[in-house]
Amino acid sequence: MKLIQMLLEFMESIKNLYENLKSYFLRYGTLNVTVIDLLKRPIKGATIQIFILNLTTTTDSNGKATLRRIPYNNYTVKVTSTQ
Amino acid sequence: MFYWHKGNPINLQAIIDPGENEIISEIKWYDNNILIPTTPLLTQLTIDTTNLSGEHKISITAKNSCGNTSDEYSKIFYITEVNMIKEISVLVDKPTVNVTVVMDFTGAINFTVTDPLNRPVEGATIQDASLNMTTTTDATGKAVLTNVPYSTQTIRITTP
User: Fold this and answer.
1) SS3 of residue B153 by DSSP
2) How far apart are CA B103 and CA B149, in angstroms?
3) What's the pTM value of the predicted model, to 2 decimals?
4) How many Å is the Cα radius of gyration of chain A?
5) Is the pLDDT of residue A43 over 80?
6) Of the candidates A77, B43, B93, B157, which lies 20 to 30 Å from A23 by C-alpha distance?
7) What is the CB neighbour count within 10 angstroms for residue B119?
8) What is the model's pLDDT at position B56?
9) Average pLDDT value for chain B
10) Average model confidence (pLDDT) for chain A?
């Protein structure tokens, strides 16, 4: 009986571990950035940087860029553009 | 394409393998397919961008002592005057976060209004209807429109 109890507790801890890992790894977001000028025209080639994650990308001809797998948090995003 | 701030020199270094038992006999640099006059066999090119703007394709070809010409290798630089940096705070707390960043590039337009005898016209109205901006010229015939977004503007000038 005690063996069954231990087995159930072990299975429960495995389940908890799985849930923790799942929530940990699923807590990523995608950041879509659109860069436009005052007349709402897209700006191509703007650089988007999140230094703390060492992520850099540039906007396409529609002024859009996407940064994926961003851990949930608050970030300073630096946008650099020439025109 | 590399976005390049006007005034910053572009330094290029060519590393060329002429092939076994061969030497480089010719190096040619081009700016938008126009030959750049350089000293022979120049491998380090510095381009002064002070008077350049817009898109410039800088390319290079080389020839070895056997007479074989390399493929053209090029990089495109977009030279501009304005470099704007904005820092925004973004909270990623859901699977998809969308943000829009407005880069408010603006400039000023200076006007001088004169009559056919080249005398300044005071009180002329300068109007940009699309931006809802209006100003009038002073006693020297001058007026300025500021904070004009980068674009082609249609301006109406009305003299008194």
Assistant:
1) coil
2) 10
3) 0.53
4) 22
5) yes
6) A77
7) 9
8) 92
9) 89
10) 87
Q: Which two tokens stand for residue B27?
A: 């190096």
Q: In terms of Cα–Cα distance, which of B143, B133, B131 is closest to B159? A: B143
Which pLDDT score, from 0 to 100, does residue A60 have? 93
Mean pLDDT for the stretch of residues A36-55: 90
Count of other CB atoms within 10 angstroms of residue B133: 16
CA A79: distance to chain centroid? Answer: 17
DSSP state of B81: S
Residues of B with Cβ-Cβ distance to A71 under 8 angstroms: 92
Mean pLDDT of B137-156: 88
User: Across the interface, do A32 and B98 touch by the CB < 8 Å criterion?
Assistant: yes
Report the pLDDT averaged over residues A2-22: 81
Name the closest residue on chain A to residue B95, using Cα atoms.
Answer: A29
Are the Cβ atoms of A38 and B105 closer than 8 angstroms? yes
Interface A-B: count of C-beta contacts within 8 A: 108
Q: How far is A49 from chain B (nearest CA, A)?
A: 9
pLDDT at B29: 95
User: Residues 6 or more apart from B156 whose CB is under 8 A from it?
Assistant: B125, B126, B127, B128, B129
Please give the structure tokens belonging to residue A15.
């389940």
Inspect the interface and report whether the beta carbons of A37 and B150 lie closer than 8 Å. yes
Q: Which two tokens stand for residue B72?
A: 């053209």
Measure the CA–CA gap between B120 and B118, rounded to whole angstroms.
6
A12–chain B nearest CA distance, Å: 28
